[in-house]
């Protein structure tokens, strides 16, 4: 007898860093994005959608320097042998769009965008390769007033999303100030190697403190796992200057003697003055440890830091941290046109913010549907008419379609989080009635009922009404 060929079946698995998401999480995200989008629109920003793929050279930071570009982006080669990459953020596509449509756009050009972005990086706890951003940017908008406005809008957006004012702090700094500092200590800001190492060390100040940063500014540092990070090899005097700056020491005189540093300091002062006058000053503080990782920032940069405590994956109590950021990038569009276009924007980390709101029980409440039980197969049109009548009044409703008995249907409604169940069996139909169970009221009442007999007698949250009273009864309970 011939052997049967073995059927090869793929293993059901997903790639690392690409999460499956469903149900309440997606509904909460949609509601949150709608709230943030309304804030952006209230400031005069209009929506824009750009493709998921861009030509790789248009992304700027990730120009291919090998046969296949792989530094941080997912890429493929088109049939005309041009490299395309999934967008890393929503700002680089905006720069391409503005350059391509520059003559037709109003100035300033104010847009916001919602979309998925992809990063070809090592995934970890809370760190995904695919996630959603919602950005707002103003192009042809010089500092400092556009920067002050974008920060105000950023704060308003976080409040609309559900973040309590007392729980968020906007940390503000400037790349111009950093450039001035580098020049003062004798480094070339254009030297991405050594100067970049200094900036990356400064960015770790909150986590490592002055001693850890001093090691990274000097010869290098070995962490707890034994991994060694090469340092910037600064002289002791240079290290002291950087640490004095990070610790809030008086560097104003030194910066005032440096053109770019003085310019950055003055811009920050004007931004703080405007925010203070408009009632936002208490939520913003100057913080030189805010560096921002992307190379295209050229002026003020900021991060939104949530200040409440949470428990991390190791069981340690830590502050939640950043849920969004932004800054000025006057040179990004110049890659296409050869001329600077003053631009500033902000970006909310949607997944991070959802996690934060969940930890504070502040997520927008999703609306679960009323479930109409299907107890008689020949009465399905009747059940669908009930659900249709509820939907016509703006109430989410569905008919059970699984083919199970009443107990299983009730379990289904419970899993769906249904607030109300509609029952119309043979007895109800004969009397032109429906039985309605308010599952929320029943759950609340069950906490005070001590016996099955008491439960059966009282039937909390349950009522039988005339069929034509179904919609008014449900509306009264839900709306």
TrEMBL record:
Q: What class of enzyme is it?
A: ligase
What CDD domains does UniProt report for this protein, alphabetically?
HisRS-like_core, HisRS_anticodon
An annotated Gene Ontology molecular function: histidine-tRNA ligase activity
Pfam families the UniProt entry points to: HGTP_anticodon, tRNA-synt_His
Write the Enzyme Commission number(s) for this entry.
6.1.1.21
Q: Where in the cell is it found?
A: Cytoplasm
PROSITE patterns (UniProt xref)? AA_TRNA_LIGASE_II
Aminoacyl-transfer RNA synthetases class-II family profile domain ranges (all copies):
32-366
**Which residue ranges does the record annotate as region Disordered?**
1-20, 443-464
Q: Which reaction does it catalyse?
A: tRNA(His) + L-histidine + ATP = L-histidyl-tRNA(His) + AMP + diphosphate + H(+)
Keyword presence, Ligase = yes
Give the family, as the similarity comment puts it.
Belongs to the class-II aminoacyl-tRNA synthetase family.
HAMAP family, A to Z: His_tRNA_synth (MF_00127)
Record protein name field: Histidine--tRNA ligase
Q: Which organism is it from?
A: Parvularcula lutaonensis
